[in-house]
Design a protein that fits this description.
It comes from Streptomyces calidiresistens. The chain has four helices and five strands. The protein is an alpha+beta fold. It has a single domain, classed as Aminopeptidase (3-Layer(aba) Sandwich), CATH 3.40.630.30. Strands 1-2-3-4-5 form a five-stranded mixed beta sheet. Strand 4, helix 3 and strand 5 form a beta-alpha-beta unit. The longest helix has 18 residues. The radius of gyration is 19 Å and the shape is globular.
């Protein structure tokens, strides 16, 4: 069985939508408080826009036996502005998806390798794979591809979803129910 990786084309949009939605459904099973299944029409529009005129974003697909069974997106990140302390380095986020029935066949590895080459050709020095804690399989996959921890991302719920006292009497605390 041969695996080929190539740049995504407009005709791949239905396969890209299928991959994104399958990936979303899998992630929702991991933790529905973190992940969601997006609207398929919005996903289609996204891929059509990116493939038509989104400079810098790279989408590659993997084919096995003539079927698109995986994809990788390389999405450039903005460089830190001059007033920030980080050394400017071109970087990008990487998002890899392989259909369930094709995992363990080397498809993800082939996609990441191709994404690294595409990033290097564009002067991108760092690739970030954002993996949330419940996705241990993704963390193992990216670690096996040479990705390493780079700092710690901490988060906290801002409480923006709670009702806030509009008069300000609560000094920013949630209003009593």
């Amino acid at each position: 069985m041969g695996i080929s990786v190539r740049a995504a084309e407009p005709g791949d949009v239905p396969a890209l939508v299928r991959l994104r939605l399958a990936n979303a459904e899998r992630h929702v099973r991991l933790d529905r408080t973190v992940y969601r299944v997006p609207d398929g029409e919005r996903v289609r529009e996204h891929f059509e826009e990116v493939l038509a005129d989104e400079p810098g974003v790279v989408i590659l697909v993997a084919e096995s036996s003539g079927d698109v069974v995986g994809m990788v997106e390389v999405v450039p990140r903005a460089e830190p502005p001059d007033h920030q302390i980080l050394v400017p380095r071109r970087s990008a986020e990487i998002h890899t998806v392989v259909l369930e029935g094709h995992r363990g066949e080397g498809i993800g590895t082939a996609l990441v390798s191709a994404a690294e080459r595409a990033a290097a050709e564009r002067g991108i020095r760092l690739l970030y794979a954002g993996v949330f804690a419940p996705n241990e399989e993704a963390a193992r996959f990216y670690s096996s591809a040479g990705f390493e921890p780079r700092g710690i991302l901490l988060s906290r719920d801002s409480g923006a979803h709670r009702s806030i006292d509009p008069a300000g009497a609560g000094a920013g605390r949630p209003a009593p129910a």
